[in-house]
Amino acid sequence: MMNATMAQQMAEKDGFIAALDQSGGSTPKALGLYGVTEDAYSNDAEMFALIHAMRARIIKSPAFTGEKVIGAILFERTMDGEVDGIPTADYLWDKRGIVPFLKVDKGLMADENGVQLMKPMGDFDALLERAVAKNIFGTKMRSVINAANKDGIEAIVAQQFEVGKQILSHGLMPIIEPEVNIKIADKAEAEELLLAAIQRNLDTVPAGQRVMLKLSLPTVANLYKPLVGDPRVMRVVALSGGYSRDEANRLLSANKGVIASFSRALTEGLSQSQTDADFDATLAATIDSIFEASRAG
Questions:
Q1: Annotated catalytic residue, options 103, 140, 187, 214
Q2: Whole-angstrom Cα distance, residue 147 to residue 189?
Q3: Which of 7, 150, 152, 267 could form a disulfide with 113 if both were Cys (CB 3.0 to 4.6 A apart)?
Q4: CB-CB contact of 285 with 277 (8 Å)
């Protein structure tokens, strides 16, 4: 059963979602930007311990609270870990007032028809059961659109919604994320096709249930406004997708009703070598800027 207090916060509260879900492939890059070079660890266990320390430092920072950060997306190992001896999801909700989500996809397939579908997820129901037991509110899964290919985009949206309904059946809120690659020449055309495909697939959402959508910031401002107002959509959130934080905030401000769910743009400027005071001040300024851009939108 979905936590009603968490659901109300996600549906109605001003703020944004922090994406703390870098996984195996993107962890070395995230650590590198944080000032931890690859010679600082010799295996995956050491690498993940370092990224967990970074995430715990963010989560415990004074500005990282539900006042402005209404949700946070966790990597599976982060969900299984602890902050100050408390399971991460419980720490987020009980100590910080932040709704916990879990990244559930296992990465991307090779490009076909201009899109990268999600890889098979193995024993997916077991993961979802574990997420429920860990007091996770919802999930996030990413696939990528690399061309304005109608067949490809139909396939990617169909896969997202099919898995989304499996997630709903466990009482979890799915964040459906068909990311449009911001570097492609036909981005605007891809986004038009994506909007149409999402609207068609929303008709398949079980009566009385809702999903969330995580989308690239569109070339045409307010393109996704019909989704923001759709009763089957709890919230539309935007990924930073490789834009700098300033550019992502600027684009986000132009899209009414859309809030941020930034990853790299959230951690931009943070460094392992910073004193706690400098780290906290940098993160607080970042959170303020993303919060204001989310509210402006």
A1: 214
A2: 9
A3: 152
A4: no
CA dihedral 105, 116, 204, 177 (to 10 degrees): 60
Could you say which of 154, 177, 179, 191 is catalytic? Answer: 177
pLDDT band (50, 70, 90) for residue 27: confident
Is 95 one of the annotated active-site residues of the chain? no
Domains of the chain plus CATH, in order, are 104-239 (3.20.20.70)
Q: By CB neighbour count within 10 A (0-12 exposed, 13-18 middle, 19+ buried), where does 245 fall?
A: buried
pLDDT in tens, 98-120: 999 999 999 999 999 999 999 99
Give residue 24's pLDDT band: very low, low, confident or very high (50, 70, 90).
low
The pLDDT of residue 25 is: 73
B/e letters for 86-115, b = 16+ CB within 10 Å, e = fewer, are ebbbebbbeebbbbbbbbbbbebeeeebbb
Is 177 noted as a catalytic residue in this protein? yes
Q: pLDDT above 70 covers what percent of the chain?
A: 99
Q: Would you state the pLDDT for residue 264?
A: 86
Pairing of strands 115-116, 211-216: unpaired
> Picking from 13-27, 91-105, 241-255, 271-285, which range would have the lowest pLDDT averaged per residue?
13-27
